[in-house]
Amino acid sequence: MTDQVVTVNTLERPAAALRGLRDTGAARRPHWAPLDGLRGIAILMVVTIHFWAHSTPGGTGFPVVLSAGPYQFNLERLFRAGAMGVPMFFVLSGFLLWHPYARAIRERSVRQPAAMFLTRRVRRIMPAFLFFSGVYLLAAWVFGKNAHGAPLSVTNILCNLLFLAPAAYPFRGDVTPDLMPGTWSLTPEIWFYALLPVFALLSANRVIRFALLTALLLFGTSYRWYVAADPRDVVQLNPLGCIHAFAWGMLAAYVAVRPRPRALGHPATAYIGAALLITSAAYQGFLLGFIDPYSQVSFATALIILSATTTESLVSSVCNTPVLRFIGRVSYSLFLCHIFVVWYVFAVVWRVADVHPGPDRFAVLMTFGLAACIGLAAGGYELVERPWLEEGLKSYRLSRGACAAAAACGLIATMLAAAVALEYRSPGAMAAFDGRVAGLAFRWAKR
Fold first, then answer.
1. What is the pLDDT of residues 81-123, one digit of tens each?
2. How confident is the model at residue 425 (pLDDT cuts 50, 70, 90)?
3. Count of H helices and E strands in the chain?
């Protein structure tokens, strides 16, 4: 009788069932701490390649050659391997976002509604993105100095804020792949978010599910193999060339919710994944002539994720260290702010402190620059990201950690602002700045 009552209530009142899903959804979603550390490793790889590239005036990096007697080894590839942190992020997103759907398909339970999923994604991504984009645009307008030459036109700003740049910049010269430097990889993420509910709808049938995953994997790999010889960003930064990385994460989620084979729970899986990740990032070539580096790194990351979610190993222990987990937690704000700090702030530091291009600048960036960026990212996470997460704005209260992060962020921001102010202490620059402020005041008074 009790079972019948529960069944009738669930069928007659689906809204109540969905409210229960909303209430218990956060509790049912598992959290794997090593994946935070893996995210920390990925963002450190991205930060390293950007710091290395922008330690020289041309933004191309400096040569790194190791001499051992008569032999010389070019280690430049190790720095360029930081770009492989991007597909690692895509695989993590594919796994974490598809895991609830894969579990619901496996258990034949209620799936997360598309509106709820998209609302959570908007609350997770947009506040910090709009905040840092606003700071970037304000700095570009005040100082009259754009970081990487992207036109600050209404068309370019709207295309990038709405993540429509890939559909426009191949045909328009005034639209760039990103407005804020380095944020082009957010567009594939947003497109994947929009397609994920459609994938969930199509995956109800087992045959269609298998065909969909196979098509995504083959299409992304074939696309990158076909356009690899084309150096234009039009094809290299297109979200179509990243879809197979998300598909590897989705495949890992399918495997994780099934009765786990003994081989996947073995620590050797993590070691194989780590070895493949290191060799793929260092080799950066096409395996067997057609398997691109994105696919190699994506497959290796999927193996590490499966091992980290099933068993303990040296790899998962490294990913589980508190420092990497903290960096992974604030990785989104760190991703948004680190290029901005390098382009605007440390360009001033180089001239004020007369730091030589190359290894000297790279050493400063990897110490003082990284510390400043992590401090700003911690403040951005506590004050901009976290209030919009699960607890919502109404229930959010500043904790001691948030207050400490806010104080550190304010101190660092004050120091960086003082450094930037030194750049514009000349009479001409100050007159231009005063003119902009006076114009704002005049328009405000006119209103």
1. 888 889 999 999 999 999 999 888 888 777 778 888 898 899 8
2. very low
3. 22, 2
pLDDT, average across residues 364-391: 85
The count of other CB atoms within 10 Å of the CB of residue 209 is: 18
16-68 residue pLDDT tens: 333 333 333 444 567 788 899 999 999 999 999 889 988 888 777 888 777 77
Question: What pLDDT, in 10s, does the model give residues 295-307?
Answer: 888 888 999 898 8
Is the Cβ–Cβ distance between 264 and 306 less than 8 Å?
A: yes
pLDDT of residue 71: 74
Please provide residue 74's backbone torsions phi and psi, each rounded to the nearest 5 degrees. -85, 110
Determine the Cα–Cα distance for residues 188 and 410; give it in Å rounded to an integer: 32
Say which residue the tokens 């290395």 belong to. Answer: 52
Q: Is residue 132 within 8 Å of 380, Cβ to Cβ? A: yes
Residues 247, 249, 255, 256, Cα dihedral to 10°: -160
Beta carbons within 10 angstroms of residue 69's beta carbon: 5
* Cα–Cα distance measured from residue 444 to residue 408, given in angstroms and rounded to the nearest whole number: 33
Average pLDDT over residues 199-222: 86
φ, ψ of residue 65 to 5 degrees: the values are -120, 130
Residues 6+ apart with CB under 8 A from 47: 82, 334, 338, 370, 373
Contact 305, 38 (CB under 8 A): yes
For the chain, domain boundaries: 30-331
Q: Tokens 């790899």, residue?
A: 315
Distance CA 56, CA 356 (A): 9
29: tokens are 């979603």
- With vertex at residue 148, the alpha carbon angle to CA 141 and CA 433, rounded to the nearest 5 degrees, is 25
Q: Which residue type sits at 43?
A: I
pTM for the full predicted model: 0.81
Cβ proximity of 242 and 249 under 8 Å: no
Q: Where are the alpha helices (DSSP H) in 341-385?
A: 347-353, 359-364, 370-380
